[in-house]
Every structure is written in structure tokens, then in C-alpha cells.
Amino acid sequence: MISAARIAEVPYLVVNHKETLTPPMAPNATSMPTEPDIVISSSVYASYGAYVVLVLIFGLSQNLLTLYVFYSDRRLHSMHNYFIVGLSLADIGMCVFGNWMIIASSFSQHWVFGRIGLPFLNFYFT
Fold first, then answer.
1. Where are the transmembrane segments (predicted)?
2. What torsion, rounded to 10 degrees, do the Cα atoms 83, 86, 91, 96 define?
3. 106, 49 in Cβ contact below 8 A?
4. Per-residue b/e over 73-108, b at no fewer than 16 CB within 10 Å?
5. Of the ranges 8-17, 39-48, 66-75, which is most confident?
6. C-alpha span between 14 and 19 (Å, rounded)
7. Following DSSP, what letter does each residue of the chain receive, concatenated?
8. What are phi and psi of 15, to 5 degrees?
9. C-alpha angle with apex 29: 27 to 31, nearest 5 degrees?
10. Is 63 exposed, middle or buried (CB count within 10 Å of its CB: 0-12, 13-18, 19+)?
11. Is residue 10 scored above 60 in pLDDT?
12. pTM to 2 decimals?
């Protein structure tokens, strides 16, 4: 559990007139550190990128197989199965439109799409 004292230590971000996020400066501070607190090794990025590639491959193959089986057999055309087809189509959209952004950023070891790409990624994952 996080204590109230620890929450009070977290600086809040304010938006200035230039539409950039800036942390509030302490009275005696001249600059904020630019290096991240946590350094992630390149093997972690590569492992995560490989994992998302596997999710993409298996997600596409299984969902396309589901669509093929549904459309090839007339007996499966029931209302319950249409719901499963809808879920399968949504998952294919997730795999195609969302995972490639994570794969590209994982293998390059930083977010390559800037502030413009974040709303698109959040749109596809919600």
C-alpha cells in the first residue's frame, strides 16, 4: 500500500501555454534530470518484441482459422457464434493495427512514434 507521505512526494505535471508537460521546479533546483531512473537492457526489449511477434502470429492464425471454420460450415451460423466471430474480428484488428507499433518500438528500444502515436495505440488497445 502506498502511504500518503509517498504520494505527497510525487511531483505533479502541469501544462504550460506551449502544450508541453513540465514538472514544477523546486526553488533551489536549476534543472531536472534527463536520464531515466530505470535502465532496461537490450535483451529485455528484444525478448518483449519477440513475444509480441509470437502473439501477433498466433493471434492472426487462430482468429483467421475461427473465421474460416465459421464461414465454411452452415451449421455454425447461430447467434452465439456471430458473437464469437465479432470477437475474432476485433482481435484481428488489434493484432494488425496495434501490435506492430509495439514491435517496432521494442526492437528500436524506444518509442519511435512520438506524442502523435500514443493516441493511436491507446485507441486500438481500448
1. 48-70, 82-103
2. 170
3. yes
4. eeeeeeeeeeeebeebeeebebbeebbebbbebbbe
5. 66-75
6. 10
7. ---HHHHHHSPPPEE-TTS-EEPPPPTT------S-SS---HHHHHHHHHHHHHHHHHHHHHHHHHHHHHHH-GGG-SHHHHHHHHHHHHHHHHHHHTHHHHHHHHHHTS-TTHHHHHHHHHHHT-
8. -100, 125
9. 135
10. buried
11. no
12. 0.63
pLDDT of residue 12: 46
Residue 126 amino acid letter: T
Higher pLDDT, 31 or 59: 59
Q: Angle between the 42-72 and 79-97 helix axes, to the nearest 10 degrees? A: 150
CA atoms of 35 and 45, how far apart (whole Å): 18
Residue 103 corresponds to which cell in the numbers above? 514491435
CA distance 65 to 91: 13
pLDDT confidence of residue 115: 86
